[in-house]
Amino acid sequence: MAGRVEGKVAFITGAARNQGRSHALRLAQEGADIIAVDIAGPVESIQMYPPATEEDLAETVRQVEALDRRIVATKADVRDSGALKAAVDDGVAQLGRLDIVLGNAGVFEIQPALELTDDAWREMIDINLTGVWNTCKAALPHLVEGGRGGAIVLTSSTAGLKGTPNTIHYTAAKHGVVGIMRTLANEFAAHSIRVNSVHPTGVDTVMIQNQKTWGLFAPDDPAPSREKAEPIFQSTNALPIPWVEPVDISNAILFLVSDEARYITGVTLPVDAGYTVQ
Amino acid sequence: MGKLEGKVAFITGAARGQGRSHAVRLAQEGADIIAVDLCSQIDTVPYPMATAEDLQQTVKEVEALDRRIVASEADVRSLPALQQAVRDGVAQLGRLDIVLANAGIAPMGAEEDPSVSWQDVIDVNLTGVWNTVRATETVLVEQGQGGAIVLTSSTAGLKGIGGDSGGGQGYTAAKHGVVGLMRSFANTLAPHRIRVNTIHPTGVNTPMVVNEFMQTWLAEDPTIAGAMTNLLPVEMIEAVDISNAIVFLVSDDGRYVTGVTLPVDAGFTAK
Q1: N or C: chain B end with fewer CB closer than 10 Å?
Q2: pTM for this model (two decimals)
Q3: How far is CA A99 from CA A104, A263, B31, in A?
Q4: Chain B window 54-83: which residues touch A at a Cβ cutoff of 8 Å?
């Protein structure tokens, strides 16, 4: 049976690990070849979890190739529009086309609003908002020139739909992603290019599974842990689960970029266990 | 192996159009079907509604896929009638996992008495949806294995369209109301791992839209026709596009999606 995205090529940012790697594998399982980028290195203001590494990106390559799909992976920073353009151009030259774009790269940090430095604000906006636009800007010419339409999914967050304390830079950037999505959905609809956003609740990755995030929920606990944070995470969701898995986001994205969703565009799709409806 | 192997789905308005498409699409993925339809005319509805022969055709198409289907004529305005249909279906098919509140009418345009058209569309499109969930939620809760409910709203559930007739205003009010029902049920049923979402189609190529009356209504008022234009270069979408979105929502692929309004509208609401 042919895969749901057989013969397509997908460009994925932040593909070294976590959600990005999961998207690369899920799409490859369904027949897509992958153009992967990741900063694969540290970001100055992000201290609460370790950065992705070049080994992580190499592992994504290994796992995609194990599925007998092709992957062109480049170490590139979404803040560098020239580097992104070079990575996409190179990927398209090698893989022959572009159909799917996933603006997935992002960082997360917790900081009370008035303690946030100018540099930390700027770095977050540069990566989580401008980086998403850079991704689209590098990819859109290929989708338009391909003349076969295309599907873009931008990874926002429940913080792209609702406000939460101690994440002002993250929340502002993730709301901004919705603005990018809605504008591009209008501007490129005539080319049959669809643009949607996904809004995960907490996903079981290092981005939320770290001392600082656990501690945020239990400020008086000297030794916060995953186990102790679990019921507090769960209370933020309507469904009785603490967090979702990367593959849950990948499955939503796979639906959105496949022909099953050929007429879905301009949509904000929460995959959030009822976080935003609660 | 299908995405819905071993599941049972209850579908209202299953005689034709989107409802039949859902029944067939879910059956293709391995589900058995409990189908109801009014199979009769409502006076204020200007286009011919589904018939008993239509419902029979749905039965035939599901059985051709080697799935079981229990079909009966029932009015979504009657809670006892829906409860009876669910009881019979579950007795024969053994369980219930999926509920699709799909039945609806569109009595827009010329009308003798706007109040009657208003009342009919509220009764079917809003109270009928409430009845559908009430007739099924206890079964899902008692079964204790979660479940997935999808309520069919409309782009008119997110935007003020539908014109200035009593039926059109009632349609828009009812479809907005369905979102309120969804959000309430999503919260109250979440502890039971029952997910509730709405779907919001733009114009779909079905007998409810593609009929002489609807085409006349659209032609008579260019502002409505203009407002009905999609963002993507497609005039009308197909019933299977709605069915595919529903399969995503009710399958394990959507296992943590609840409380969501999902437009399948070619960008209509994003304009």
Answers
A1: N
A2: 0.96
A3: 16, 15, 32
A4: none
